[in-house]
Amino acid sequence: MTARQLIFTALLAAGLWAPTAAQVNYSVDSMRVANAEWSIDTLEGFYLKRYHFGEGALFCSAQHLFVIEIPAQSHRRLAFVCDSTLTEVSSLAERCGAYAAVNGSFFDMDAGNPVCYLRIDGIQVGENTPAATDSVNRKYYQHATLALRNGRPRLAVPDSNRLWEERLTDSNIMTAGPMLLRHGALVPQRDDRSFVTHRHNRTALGLKPDGTTLLVVADGRFKHQAEGLSLTELELVMRWLGCSEAINLDGGGSCTMYVQGKPHGGVVNYPSDNRTHDHEGQRPVSNAILVL
């Protein structure tokens, strides 16, 4: 770790660094997340949790968080799905008979193909597109890998080889990133990219030490209602939710959480692609993570 990263981590842990001009008291924010009176739906093998932090309540902003929590002992399993044409998360989930789903990894919005490595049931359907200006030949959002073993997620950090995933033996692999938490520690993020420092809708997957899996969506792009998170804020939220490992997935207008049987066609969050604070703004995506 560089000296700059060590200073960043120390300031972040002490609550002395903030992504905006206003100083944020992270200890207060962490307590607000921990003490929030979440709306909890107990479903078959998992929970749906929702909470709206009003204007200024979290990171001096309004935030709307949605969490699918799958206990370690649950019989529910995760799976990946990818379509040859861009399709809404709810449609992908319904087609596969999934109980729940979130959007997956990054994709080309024009060509419709994944731009990160993706393997489903042993078949490679996506590759890491090269980064022309990156010395390690990986784009910033290709620096974390999610593998499913018997439907259970495991996270790994690839090396600098763009083809690193091809050596893995798992049948289901999804690369995204960056990594947010590793072995319980915050992963220092770059401060020279708006993808990292600006607030956007975010989707993430996290693992608790006991094996519980969290799928998390933070809405964004709705001023005074849901302003979205920077990656630094997202990793803090994932740690406050109890995760020791966490990966960032595709975000922005792609962010969608679907739960079978819920109103609005199962879309429980407020996707932003129609720029209206309702449940109708799903963006068609290339791939998704399913709860079966």
Characterization of the model:
By secondary structure, the protein is of the alpha+beta class. The chain has one domain. It contains 5 helices and 17 strands. The chain has helices spanning 3-14, 26-35, 89-96, 194-197, 231-240, and strands at residues 39-43, 46-58, 61-70, 78-87, 100-103, 118-120, 123-126, 144-149, 152-156, 172-176, 179-182, 185-186, 202-207, 213-218, 245-248, 257-259, 285-291. It has an 8-stranded antiparallel sheet with strand order 1-2-3-14-13-15-11-12. A 5-stranded antiparallel sheet has the order 7-6-10-8-9, with no helix packed on it. It is globular and about 45 Å long. Mean pLDDT is 92; it is low at 1-5 and 7-22.
Distance between the termini: 39 Å
**Sheet with the most strands, sense and barrel status:** 8 strands, antiparallel
Bin the helical content: 10-25%
The count of helical stretches stands at 5
Q: What string gives the helices and strands in order?
A: HHEEEEHEEEEEEEEHEEHEEE
Strand coverage percent = 25-35%
Coarse structural class? alpha+beta
